[in-house]
Specification:
Elements: H1 3-11, H2 15-29, E1 47-50, E2 54-59, H3 64-67, E3 76-77, E4 87-93, E5 97-107, H4 111-122, E6 129-133, E7 169-176, E8 179-187, E9 194-204
Antiparallel strand pairs: 1-2, 2-4, 3-5, 4-5, 5-9, 6-7, 7-8, 8-9
Helix pairs in contact: 1-2
């Protein structure tokens, strides 16, 4: 499986957030450097590439420590779901860097309990913003500023609620557009319980570390 086919598969799962990461990964792959995924088992594959241009990792190997938040008690990590796949993407070059981690969970508890749990856990990163959305997984916006000569390149934008701020998906956000933690919680589509998505996004331009 090539990098292009792997990223296209991931894009279908969470296109609102993955657009930025996909764009920079495909731009990186267009340099002529090629590689293959690590295995051929038919499961979600990881793609790793190290070169003089930069380093790339694309996969579904989500490490809870990278998310920076604990798993809600009793929650179950959703595996191999074409609609809501987990993802771990990292791309680092001398011009920019992107780190994106996404994990989906199912819980038997009501959404209100999960919201209360993560509102408390997110406080360690700063002021928690509560938004509402109709999009599964919430509405996450990020950006990469690769021009360090821009006077505003070092000014990271504060997070805000996107769209009309309505819907049954509750988004808890903390941080800035280039370094953020987001938890999006919604009632299960069928039956009782809830589903939720945890997202960590960190981007940089020529300067800074991830």
């Amino acid at each position: 499986m090539t990098l292009n086919s792997l990223t296209r598969r991931k894009e279908r799962s969470y296109s609102p957030l993955f657009g930025l990461a996909l764009a920079v990964v495909l731009a990186f792959s267009s340099t002529g450097v090629s590689a293959q995924a690590a295995d051929d088992t038919g499961q979600d594959k990881n793609f790793d590439l190290k070169s003089t241009v930069g380093d790339v990792h694309v996969g579904s190997d989500v490490d809870q420590r990278e998310l920076g938040l604990p798993t809600y008690p009793g929650a179950r990590l959703r595996q191999h779901d074409e609609d809501r796949s987990n993802a771990n993407l990292a791309l680092f070059t001398s011009a920019f860097g992107v780190k994106l981690v996404v994990a989906h969970y199912d819980s038997d508890d009501d959404a209100s309990k999960i919201v209360a749990f993560y509102r408390e856990k997110l406080k360690k990163y700063g002021k928690v913003l509560e938004c509402h959305s109709s999009q599964h997984g919430g509405n996450v916006k990020s950006g990469v500023n690769i021009d360090d000569d821009d006077k505003g390149s070092n000014k990271s934008k504060e997070l805000k609620c996107e769209g009309d701020n309505t819907g049954n998906v509750i988004e808890l956000k903390v941080g800035t557009e280039d370094n953020q933690h987001v938890v999006a919680i919604e009632p299960a589509e069928k039956g009782k319980g809830s589903t939720f998505e945890m997202v960590y996004v960190h981007t940089r331009g020529k300067q800074g570390e991830i």
